[in-house]
Amino acid sequence: MPEGETNTPSARGLSPLYAAGFTTAFGAHSIAGGLGAETHNLGLSILTLGVLLALYDIAEVILKPVFGALSDRIGARPLIIGGLLLFAAASLLGVWSVDPIVLGLSRLGQGAGASAFSPASSAAVARLAGPAAAGRYFGRYGSWKALGYAIGPLLGAGLITVGGFPALFVALASLAIGVAVWVLVAVPQLPVLPRPHYTLADLVRQVTNRSFLLPTAALACATGALGVAVGFLPLLGATMGFPILAGMAAVTVLALASSLIQPIVGRLRDADRITTKSGLAAGLLLAATGIALLALVPSPVTLYLAALVLGLGIGIATPIGFAHLAATTPPERMGRTMGAAELGRELGDAGGPLLVGAIATALSVSAGLGALAVILGVTAALCATLLRTTLGPSS
Question: Do 280 and 356 share a domain, yes or no?
Fold first, then answer.
């Protein structure tokens, strides 16, 4: 194993990386929830709101593969620190004005910062953990991200209530600066490894290899299910006459279930009690079951039951997918792989709600949810039948 990598990394070196994962999830969801709640107070049109919400994701879709590959060239730690500081600077920009243009620039800058530190953090977790312990540490990393998704909207709403958007932006900037300092002090400098020359044909071979393509597709599907749930659980709750907080509580149930199950699944994966094939298939089937419940039997009981099942399914598939990619990728191109995997997740995060929304507009919400459930089930079947059981660097 190259110098600087170990199968027993210290908590001191990994904890700041978990905090970075929490930061990107908390930042994305707290502001998104706040913008939605304060649309009328800010004088935003629905179109403007949609643009502001999309800017963060647009930046990530474009930049994550770029920064992921760059982390292989200059090292993960500089990109993590630089990305966090960019995120902080963009957050401070939002403190001084709630003008839509300034908010847009702030949101775009935050997305660019997250595009740098998110895949670099994933690559650092992979290299510090090593293939044998990747499940355990990606389980913890994913757990902290899920916690950011869970409390982001609630904590963001509390900060906005106390001090408006400036309070939220100050909190985000302070968090990002604090984590950047923590990374500087605690995360070891991983050596930049010699990289063989890669051609475009090599890149095409990697991204079409089933060892990469199927886990990335599974991660995209799981994230798509999460994106749909965050939007449609409160919507379905509202149609049942629930207050807004009751609908948001269903999202919290999902996020907490995902947060709690991920470290457990990661440990089971490392102990060879869950394989990639069985883990991804089981996780996606659970997610498909949760979505199907919402589509076929919408009721107050199934709303929370579906949220629980969805959270467990997403929480099983996510660490298994990332651990498999970490175990099958040569360390010298770990950043590129994690950047591409993160891109897949972003496409799923955007594509899932778009798919369900388009079909719901044309037919019904149940039809849209049913279509997503079918896609999740088909992807689960592909993972169960086509993924190899042996590990090793993918070609």
Answer: yes
- Amino acid 373 reads A
Q: Per the structure block, which two tokens stand in for 48?
A: 């403007």
Question: What distance in Å separates the CA atoms of residue 224 and residue 351, rounded to the nearest whole number?
Answer: 7
Asked if residue 318 and residue 357 are part of one domain, the reply reads yes
pTM, to two decimals: 0.83
Judge contact between 173 and 95, C-beta under 8 A.
yes
Same domain, yes or no: 233 and 291: yes
Token pair 């919290």: residue:
252
Number of domains in the chain: 2
Q: Which domain holds residue 22?
A: 9-190
Helical segments of the chain, H only: 11-37, 39-42, 46-74, 76-95, 100-129, 134-186, 200-208, 210-239, 244-270, 276-296, 300-327, 334-362, 365-386
Which of the pair, 230 or 324, is modelled with greater confidence? 324
Query: What is the reported pLDDT for 16?
Result: 94
Q: What angle do CA 228, 234, 239 make, to 5 degrees?
A: 115
- Reported as a single tens digit per residue, the pLDDT across 280-321 is 999 999 999 999 999 998 888 899 999 999 999 999 999 999
